[in-house]
Amino acid sequence: MTTTKQYASLDNIVYDADALKLKKPIRSGKFVYENYPKNGGQKYQVLKTVDTNDTKNSHGYDTNGFQGMAVAPIDQNGNVDYTQITVAYAGTNFSDRKDVAEDLQGIGAGNRKNLMLTNEKSQKYITASQFDSALKFYQQVQTKYPNATLDTTGHSLGGAIALLVGSHYHVSATVFSAPDPWNAMTNTERLWALAHPESLRNYRHQGDLWSETDSKTLGIDGFTGKTVWCQTTASGMLKNHNTHMLSTFKFNQKGQAKQLKAQMENDIDLLDEKQSAIKKLVKSLKKSGGTFTHAEKIAVDAVEAIAMADSLNRIAGDGIGQIIKQYHAAIEEFEPLWQQTIKSAALIGAHLSDNEVIQALEAGGVRRQTVVDEPTQKLTAKIDQAQAVGQEYLALSANIKLVVDRMMATDQELAGMFS
């Protein structure tokens, strides 16, 4: 199973498939490693690349700044696992005006099909968008390896592209610092994305000037997939700029991204964002079709229920879990407090034995029972209550998802929207 750190490594590697960046860019047949550019960690074989800045590596593609790479892991015996393929998309190369144009026209304006560019003679011309090229690239990989399980990944613009491709082909996407591609998505893709937040994970840093500012300005922040707020190594005056970079993510020894500890407030904000997304989707469905079909109404109800279920899971895991952790921390302080009380009292009555010190404290109303036992019992009861609430949230979440699954099982049109 690919770790979050390995996805981030692949997102770093795909940037080097760009002929504008390297004289010898990464191409199919090359072996790359998790610890790129050094050897070490998981080894991969590059199965296919497309670099539209290289005419020899982009047959059938418009010159629009797109780079894509498909890789398969290699096991310890040197065998390539063609059943597990990851498709990675490169993000913005700020020295390539085509990438910047895609940021503005694709992410900003929601133009999914075309990209308007300007040549050296200041003449405007139209090419296919990078979103269009990304869908084409994924389809080519899928056709060549029909028995493989594919997933997608990308950073920044590449992450937005991966989220859209994942929503289109109904596969998972693991992305980093990605602006939300909502404006470039079809209503069917939006429905699937809202119904499958766990399949579309966007690892982000708070204060990211690029992905967060862009999405918030457009009013679509957190609409697509599940936002996972992470710890960052960035600091200083350029922190909000550097938090966008892949190199500022922290990972543990298992290759998991280190998340922010207290996320309950963010969980509530994300629920609000999902509800805003659903409202916009309803408006778009009504506008595009002229009528709001029965199946579409049910679909919207379903994704709203799924968003609520996802939020209940988050609150149970983040909010209630944090409360329980704080209670346990408080309990652990009671015994040291009692021991320190005894030591302090002993200093005052140096001639008294330990038992006499305790008797003197009890005479003054200070007992182990009141300092340790009773507070521990009270907080233990609160922990039990919090755990019960958490279980109720999880049970409600499971019931919501069960109802949605039953709805899709009995309504073929609805199932078609989500499958």
TrEMBL record:
One of its GO terms (biological process) is lipid metabolic process. Gene3D superfamilies: alpha/beta hydrolase. It comes from the Bacteria. Residues 138-169 form the Fungal lipase-type domain. This is Fungal lipase-type domain-containing protein. It comes from Latilactobacillus fuchuensis.
